[in-house]
Amino acid sequence: MKMFYIYTLLLLLSLSACGQQDQPITDSEAIVVGSEDVSATQNGNTKNSKQTYEINKTEAEWKKQLTPEQYYVLRKKGTERAFSGKYNDHKEKGVYTCAACGNEVFTSDTKFDSGTGWPSFFKPISSKNVREVADRSMGMVRTEVVCGRCGGHLGHVFDDGPKPTGLRYCLNSVALGFKKGE
After folding, report:
1. Distance between CA atoms of residues 67 and 3, nearest Å
2. How far is the C-alpha of 15 from the C-alpha of 142, rounded, in Å?
3. Catalytic residue at 147?
4. Which of 9, 73, 89, 179 has the largest CB neighbor count within 10 A?
5. Which residue in 18, 98, 147, 170 is the catalytic one?
6. Are 165 and 84 in contact (CB under 8 A)?
7. Cα–Cα distances in angstroms (integers) from residue 159 to residues 41, 45, 72, 77, 170, in the given order
8. pTM of the full predicted structure?
9. Whole-number pLDDT of residue 60
């Protein structure tokens, strides 16, 4: 019985590692995510700015394009359950893309097993392909990772990753696509 409680506690802690606050979805939303006020972090520097993205769609257009689970994660900043995503244990060589727009965001060469239940990477393809944004939800400050082309929520970045960067980009599988390497 004691092991059950320990296992349950560990499971709850791992779920909170990349957890997000559930945001209600309303039909009246017609937000163009192509431009929003955020605190952006690039190379350790944080500044308030208006984020602009190459791809601008209304929430109705995103709902039509994405599956309900993709919409929840990519547009409403949700999180899939730990150990449930198809890319958590994925070992093929290739490039991971944003599931919303196809932007190449991470390579398999930078993927590692973090044990958190979400696919983890130590470096994006380019700082232009992903953006880091201050996330003050859930009573804490974290760094959100979004697609640099469409602004879709990919996950969060933490400073407990492996060398050479020391970073762990903890992402949602449902927010990713994959292009097999040659």
Report:
1. 38
2. 15
3. no
4. 73
5. 170
6. no
7. 14, 15, 26, 20, 11
8. 0.75
9. 96
